[in-house]
Structure formats: structure tokens, C-alpha cells
Amino acid sequence: MRKIKLVRCTLGKEGDDIRDDGDNVRYVPLEEFNLWSFLMEQKHGFQIKKKEASLWFDDDVYEDWQKNYQEERLERVKELVINWYSPEDDAVLPIRRYISEKDFERVKDILMNHYPDTVVYEGKSEFTMKEVEERQGYFVRKAG
Question: Could you tell me the pTM of the whole model?
């Protein structure tokens, strides 16, 4: 059973017609949101619109809580965890992202390419461990 506070927001560039669709929507853990938004705005030049903080919970919690929420308030959002061993850091780095179900496979492929199976470290090619976990869940939209 997993629950986490997320911020759902929409990204766009200056002059964009920012719509509330899946291509522009991001889900960011609340405790990371200020740093993430600073980087998106200052480094990448995005504007962040339509911020909405709420709760994400996995299927196990949904079984217990489904009577509490109207179906139209729930967005299917998957949690992706890539546990990637970095030889440079000699540590497993957990990378955790929340992705709308409809964009999941496309975004997962992009993220997996950021964490290769082999890296060059100290002049030699080394295999890195990469374990992937996926968990189905729901983001609760505000009523009304």
C-alpha cells in the first residue's frame, strides 16, 4: 500500500496555448515540487500553470478507498521506479516518476534511455544494474 502527495501541473513555453492535456501534464512529488519548478522555469524556460496538489495512491489503497471518490475525479497514473546502479557513485540510485497511464510506455522508453545498461567508467565499459518496478495508481482531482 502506497500513498504520496503529488502536484499535478501543466507545462508550457511563453506564448503557448497551454491546454490541460496529457502531453503537457506532469505529476511531481510535493516535497520535490519547489526545486523541480525552479529548474523547469529557470533552466528550461517553461511556465508552470494549473497547479493542483492532491493524493496519489496505488491499486491496493484504491480497493479500500474506492467508495470515497467519484470515478471522474480519479486519473490513472502509474509510478515508475528505476533502481539503477551507478559505478561512479558505487550506489543504487532510485529514480521515481509518476506518469499518466496513456503516456506511460512512451515516457518509460525515454527515461530508460537516460539510464543505460553499460557505462564507461574509469576508461572501461561496465555493466550497470537496472531494476524496474511499475505500480498502477490514481491521482485524485479536486471536486468541481
Answer: 0.81
